[in-house]
Design goal:
Transmembrane segments: 9-30, 42-61, 68-86, 98-120
Pfam families: VanZ (PF04892)
Structural class: mainly alpha
Number of domains: 1
Protein name: VanZ family protein
Organism: Coralloluteibacterium stylophorae
Strand content: under 5%
Largest sheet: none
Radius of gyration: 16 Å
Mean pLDDT: 92
Domain VanZ-like: 42-110
Helix content: 55-70%
């Protein structure tokens, strides 16, 4: 992990995001019929992008960051499989969701190549004062 004054806090926020993603994706979704076509793919991509950005902010090495992104891709695949088997009444397995999740995770990981890569450390330093 990167050098933080509050490393447990930032890791807990990321883990809560992961847990929230799993919970939201596996709960029955009666509202899905009302969602405009394609809108959910944008939500999938944005959610996984945010999780990947947070991973880049957390982990110091390129290897750890890419492992986290690979884990997010695997999580997206696993969730889709579970949606098809655990909640088939209101959810369905959709390969397009896997594509959206993957593209979002890869896009989020690109923050590594920008000045925003150290943003969480800057916030952490401000809070530590």
């Amino acid at each position: 992990m990167r050098d933080f004054a509050h490393p447990r806090l930032w890791l807990a926020v990321w883990i809560a995001g992961l847990a929230g993603t799993v919970a939201v994706c596996l709960l029955p979704a009666p509202y899905m019929a009302q969602t405009p076509s394609g809108t959910d793919k944008v939500v999938h991509a944005a959610g996984y992008a945010l999780l990947a950005v947070w991973a880049v902010w957390l982990f110091a090495t390129r290897r750890a960051q890419w492992r986290a992104v690979a884990g997010l891709v695997a999580l997206g695949v696993a969730i889709e499989i579970l949606q098809g088997s655990l909640v088939p009444e209101t959810r369905s397995m959709d390969a397009r969701d896997v594509v959206a999740n993957t593209l979002g995770a890869l896009a989020g990981a690109c923050v590594r190549f920008t000045p925003l890569a150290g943003l969480l450390q800057q916030v952490d330093r401000l809070l530590a004062r």
